[in-house]
Write a structure and sequence with these properties.
elongated
Length: 705
């Protein structure tokens, strides 16, 4: 017999209806129709607005009957819809009283917060119809993608090497040579390059639907528009950015992104998403009403007693993440991306906001962070916090981790940069950073992989600019150089910006190699910024959020121009992958617990076994005993790393080895290429086994075998 629950019970203007199911929220295909479900606690009534795809006016507006409301959820099945060719939104009728936190306005058509596809910005950079009564249009997604046997890779965190990239910037430049530049498909074409580099995880800057025209403005005396290029301003949390898909104009962005993930997984590369749950694109009181503000403003945002928006994000509003409704939305969203897109991990922008209560005070045990940490669906996903926010809350080393959360280690970034440019009093701090920051994490029982180690990221200088500029140069952002961070811990090596001075250029190359060498021998999880491996520059701009141009696009010609730098990066990554002693799950104990005759890690200076911890010291060395690799469960070579950040050359005495082992030279940044680095496994023997001269501002890595 035919099921009774797929028959309509109501009609409205020839549309057949039935009371729907409250869960899941959003628009879901059901037998014979589409189930629409949306929550609002303060609205008096709700109307479903249906469009034919891209039509300027609705084809029908269907009020939810009172009997279709369950608690504070409006749910309705509409039968016989051409679901591939419709768009939908809602009108909410309720109080308009901003002082009380209510912004209801039934004249506005509102985007479903759970929309899986969003139209309206289908092709990147094509100006929208600003007279459209419904700018961002919810569409239905269809679960018909063939994943074959794909599943998340579950690479142990300590074995990861992360490559942070911008989807558009990675292949948009004409030199990329891809068929579909600036898209998910373009990244697929560059997978062989990622494999050659040696990374096993890419972290995508925001791919949730956003509006690149948000706050767009022309540059003075130019026709070029400054856009919302980075995308840290979410319109819809469940929908991939259509403008990042070459098939976005056909509404196929879901399949294109899934195809990218599947192909990356086949090649042993995980996919992380940079997610922004701290604010939305609706901004402050003067911002547009797109979705949340018109549906339940008082629920979704942190509000002052006078009805204004708390701004801990620095962008106008702050999501009320620890309200149970918002908390569940975040959980639903991440579950969706983990299950439907097979995403391996998430990096949370300004994650300290996720630990604030509705009035902005930091919580001791934030329920959202706990919920995500213990969720069964997210159990194998990596969770990474940017452990600070724009409101001044800085939690590196103290982020509420619940045994699950890793952190972008800002103290690692700052410590490496200061040591790199030769600041005094840095060797003690360096010892902590190189070990995976046990001073920050060991006391709380958190391992080295808690620390996401990085020298550069999208927010700040590139590696080339870090060694080429003393000051930021953000004038092209048209904000009078007031935007961006002033504390860059950078050093231009003797000239600000571009120079033909060969001595300065050589020093800059050496400093970049020093940075990647130190990063790759540090315990924890290394992350490198797109293009650093080939010397990409942003001309001293440390906040390129608004530039859709060659300032942000990766120029692939640099790969040939800076071939020696790329080779150094590639071999350093391969070296890390080859040596498990560099990828321990637990912190070093500074003792010999396997009977090798050496502690797991020992510290040295220009004299073996005698590190100089004084304020004026700018030299430091350490040795890792390979018998302690992976806590003694595997055997590895011995590794010795000597760092001379002094402006003078120094003789380093090297600790002796047992069992007829000899030291071999893997890298010496003070030597002219190609002898600055060797392919792992083919390192030449060190002529003088008792010591070597290390040049000024140089790093040497030896392998004992």
């Amino acid at each position: 017999m035919e099921r009774i629950d797929i028959h309509p019970t109501h009609t409205y203007d020839k549309f057949k209806l039935r009371r729907g199911r409250p869960f899941p929220f959003g628009a879901t295909l059901v037998p014979g129709g589409v189930n629409f479900s949306i929550f609002s606690s303060y609205t008096k009534s709700c109307t479903l607005v249906l469009f034919k795809k891209r039509a300027p006016e609705p084809m029908v507006e269907i009020p939810f009957p009172d009997e279709f409301r369950i608690g504070n959820v409006f749910c309705m099945v509409v039968f016989d819809l051409d679901y591939e060719n419709i768009e939908y939104g809602y009108r909410m009728d309720g109080p308009f009283n901003p002082k009380e936190g209510h912004w209801f306005d039934k004249s506005k058509i509102l985007l479903d917060p759970y929309a899986k596809i969003i139209g309206g910005r289908d092709v990147w950079g094509i100006p929208a119809n600003w007279n459209d009564i419904y700018q961002h249009r919810a569409r239905l997604a269809f679960d018909d993608f063939d994943w074959e046997d794909d599943r998340p890779l579950e690479i142990p965190p300590e074995d990861q090497i992360i490559y942070e990239m911008h989807v558009r910037g990675f292949t948009r430049h004409i030199s990329s040579g891809v068929k579909h530049p600036g898209t998910f498909a373009g990244i697929r074409e560059k997978i062989p390059y990622l494999k050659e580099l040696g990374v096993n995880c890419i972290e995508l800057m925001p791919v949730y639907e956003f509006d690149e025209f948000e706050n767009s403005r022309p540059k003075p005396e130019s026709e070029e528009l400054l856009l919302n290029y980075w995308g840290y301003s979410t319109v819809g949390f469940f929908a991939p950015k259509a403008g990042y898909a070459t098939t976005g104009k056909f509404g196929m962005q879901v399949d294109e992104l899934k195809a990218l993930v599947k192909t990356l997984h086949k090649n042993g590369i995980e996919v992380f998403l940079d997610v922004v749950f701290n604010h939305t694109a609706e901004g402050n009181e003067r911002g547009p009403t797109i979705s949340f503000r018109g549906i339940d403003n008082k629920i979704y945002y942190m509000m002052t007693p006078d009805g204004y928006y708390y701004n801990f994000s620095g962008t106008g509003n702050t999501l009320n993440c620890n309200n149970p409704i918002v908390r569940n939305m975040v959980l639903d969203c991440l579950r969706y991306w983990a299950s439907e897109y097979h995403i391996d991990g998430f990096r949370f922008d300004l994650a300290s906001i996720l630990g604030r209560d509705p009035w902005g005070a930091p919580l001791a045990n934030p329920p959202l962070l706990e919920l995500l940490a213990f969720d069964p669906i997210l159990a194998k996903c990596k969770l990474i916090a940017e452990a600070w926010d724009a409101g001044g809350l800085y939690q590196v080393g103290s982020f509420p981790a619940f045994g699950r959360w890793a952190e972008w280690n800002g103290k690692y970034r700052d410590g490496i940069r200061k040591f790199l440019k030769g600041d005094p009093g840095r060797v003690g701090d360096m010892a902590q950073r190189l070990q995976g920051s046990p001073d920050l994490y060991a006391g709380a029982g958190r391992g080295p992989a808690t620390s996401i180690n990085f020298v550069t990221a999208h927010d700040g200088f590139t590696l080339t600019d870090l060694v080429s500029y003393n000051e930021k140069h953000n004038e092209v952002n048209c904000e009078n150089n007031n935007d961006g961070c002033n504390d860059n811990d950078s050093w231009n090596c003797g000239a600000e910006g571009w120079t033909e001075d060969q001595e300065i250029l050589t020093l800059r190359q050496r400093q970049m190699k020093n940075a990647i060498a130190m990063l790759m021998v540090s315990q924890g999880v290394p992350m490198i910024l797109m293009g650093d491996e080939m010397g990409r520059s942003q001309c001293g701009n440390n906040n390129t959020y608004c530039h859709d141009n060659e300032l942000n696009w990766l120029d692939w010609n640099l790969l040939e121009l800076n071939a020696n730098l790329f080779r150094f990066f590639k071999h350093c990554i391969a070296f890390r992958n080859a040596h498990p002693i560099l990828r321990n799950q637990y912190h070093f104990r500074n003792v010999d617990y396997v009977g090798s005759g050496y502690a797991d890690i020992t510290w040295h200076g220009t004299q073996a076994w005698n590190a100089d911890w004084s304020t004026h010291s700018r030299t430091l060395a350490f040795m890792l005993c390979g018998k302690h690799a992976k806590e003694g469960t595997v055997s590895d070579n011995y590794i010795y790393v000597a760092m001379n950040m002094h402006h003078r050359t120094h003789w380093f005495e090297i600790p002796g080895l047992r069992d007829s082992m000899k030291w071999h030279v893997f890298a010496n940044t003070g030597v002219t290429p190609p002898e600055d680095i060797w392919q792992p496994g083919r390192e030449p023997i060190l002529e003088n086994q008792s010591g070597l001269i290390i040049g000024d501002r140089s790093v040497v890595i030896l392998v004992g075998k």
